[in-house]
């Protein structure tokens, strides 16, 4: 019995010495890996029309993969198209008005104005001759050869012909000067207003088609053909599958171990035999209290910082909200055993 006890004590001493020697030549270093716990996250968007009109087509189903620029739905444009056609016609008409004002009077218009002046001058000269003739007869006959009515008619005809001559001369001057600058500016501003109105209607016509803003997956098809769309009612709910990240939280004591761009591997329960590559893309600069849904090793309230580990998931195998574990390799070198000279 004593021999057994002595043998056990000797074995224990040898084991203790071995552990001591191992610790001497292989001192413990810092942890080689940090583990964070979180959930897979991605961006979602609610896609709605800009116009209020009835839906005529819905071209995507739940689960469909859509590409950027792909048409997903259309609105009824039967009332909008005539407005666009009317605005186009009004714009062309106003363009012609502006062009006419810039060109001024045509040579034919100026020639016509000159001819009117010549005609008015001839009429004025004839009226002057008639009046002078009657006036001479009246004076020579002491008023007996010409009636008072004929004399007055000749005088009024002379005044009328002189006024007509002045009108035609002013018309010729206006034709030579051309349109007023104020009229040209007014026509130009009206042209800009017509252009803006047409652009607005064309934008409304383009907005009658709902496009995918980026590559995504249709999560929910909310509205159907025949329903009235408004900017406040989403037609689709889309999930943007790239980029995708794991939202995790790290305590203040471990914050100094992280830096943007660090390579990580991400593990999920659904793919226990593989890991996804990723990197640290975001480290929050603001502390917050630990959310209740966060899984941590130490289940205690504390201040933490949000970390986003972006993941390469080209096959789109990770799903929103999936629990994930982020593994970060911490760079360090084990201490070398001291030599006899150093000791």
Structure description:
With 343 residues, the protein is α+β, with helices and mostly antiparallel strands. Among the domains are: 47-81 and 205-236, Beta Barrel (OB fold (Dihydrolipoamide Acetyltransferase, E2P)); 84-200. Helix content is 40%, strand content 25%. The protein is built from 5 helices and 13 strands. A 6-stranded antiparallel β-barrel has the order 1-8-12-10-9-13. Strands 5-4-2-7 form a 4-stranded antiparallel β-sheet, with no helix packed on it. Strand 9 and strand 10 (276-283) form a beta hairpin. The longest helix is centred in the middle third of the chain and has 34 residues, at 107-140. The model is unreliable at 8-27 and 332-343 (pLDDT under 50).
